[in-house]
């Protein structure tokens, strides 16, 4: 009976597309998923929108309910959400209860919540007489549904396995070198590539470099504009390795150092801190070790249109002896950057690239 009071499939599709767009206004970093919500009238008109603005702030459903200014009386309203409503009390009360208290009659969500602490919102809503179901069961357009699921895909992946979505960056020549025979490497790529790389830095929670790279380059590991000003969102710098960093180096006293070579354990500790996106910018030794350990989800390659013929390879020996044992990635994005070429390749999930 309640299902008959829901908006049409076309209206639900439109609502989910709007919720997905709203979700992207929220912060990608900070440990919480990006979530959007649309409240629809029985006729399918969008009455209000909401999105999650970060840890400790109202969740998307509560934000949408707060933005609902129109007096709808007892009309059976529908909430369309990109992620299953949470069912636990953390920094905020459970969204499942908020929807019930607001009198919402239908709740549709795109992606199930993989967090065992928060999952079960849909089941609880159903137990309380709410018509609650995944969007896949109501005939929403498949492309719109896929886009909605992609909004929280990285967070979901990190939540399921207890470590961040990990990007490895490589900047190299056409023949695969990241440094010349004399060790010089600044700059292999051009200023547009470097500016783009800094934008990506600003979209992650933590940036990790090995002690070898820190000792060779004395980097800042911050996200900056071309004029040196820092971007609003800054990643946490983290050094991995046992070698001492001199006291006069930029990161000395500014960055934590994990005195280990166990990158998996380091990434797991990052997740426990609430860090969902990690960027490895630590040079070929760290990137090669991460690839060998199967810890790279996304590979960013910046190709400069130059040849060296010899020097240091951007990716070292992976211990692969046969073509059938290759590490295979799927090309996700190609971008021309003033003569350089940027390639984004993924092993699984959706991308976290800037436009």
Give me the secondary-structure topology.
Elements: H1 9-23, E1 36-40, E2 46-51, H2 60-66, E3 78-83, H3 95-101, E4 106-111, H4 121-127, E5 131-134, H5 142-151, H6 153-161, E6 165-173, E7 177-179, H7 191-201, E8 206-210, H8 211-217, E9 236-240, E10 256-258, H9 263-272, E11 277-280, H10 284-292, E12 298-304, E13 312-313, E14 330-337, E15 340-346
Parallel strand pairs: 3-4, 4-5, 6-11, 6-12, 8-9, 8-11, 9-10
Antiparallel strand pairs: 1-2, 1-3, 7-13, 12-15, 14-15
Helix pairs in contact: 1-5, 3-4
Can you describe this structure?
The chain is α/β, with parallel strands linked by helices and 355 residues long. 26% of the residues lie in helices and 23% in strands. The protein contains 10 helices and 15 strands. It has helices at 9-23, 60-66, 95-101, 121-127, 142-151, 153-161, 191-201, 211-217, 263-272, 284-292; strands at 36-40, 46-51, 78-83, 106-111, 131-134, 165-173, 177-179, 206-210, 236-240, 256-258, 277-280, 298-304, 312-313, 330-337, 340-346. The strands form 3 sheets. An 8-stranded mixed β-sheet has the order 10-9-8-11-6-12-15-14, sandwiched between helices. Helix 8 (211-217) links the parallel strand 8 and strand 9. Helix 1 runs parallel beside helix 5. The longest helix is centred in the first third of the chain and has 15 residues, at 9-23. The two termini are 44 Å apart.
Oligomer: single chain
State the secondary-structure class. alpha/beta
Distance between the termini: 44 Å
pLDDT < 50 runs, ≥5 residues? none
Principal-axes shape call: elongated
Q: How would a textbook summarize the main sheet?
A: 8 strands, mixed
Q: Estimate the helix proportion, in percent.
A: 25-40%
- Total E-strand runs: 15
Q: Whole-number radius of gyration?
A: 23 Å
Put simply, the count of helices is 10
Q: Kindly estimate the percentage of residues that lie in beta strands according to DSSP.
A: 15-25%
Write the element-wise H/E pattern from the N-terminal end onward.
HEEHEHEHEHHEEHEHEEHEHEEEE
The residue-averaged pLDDT reads 91
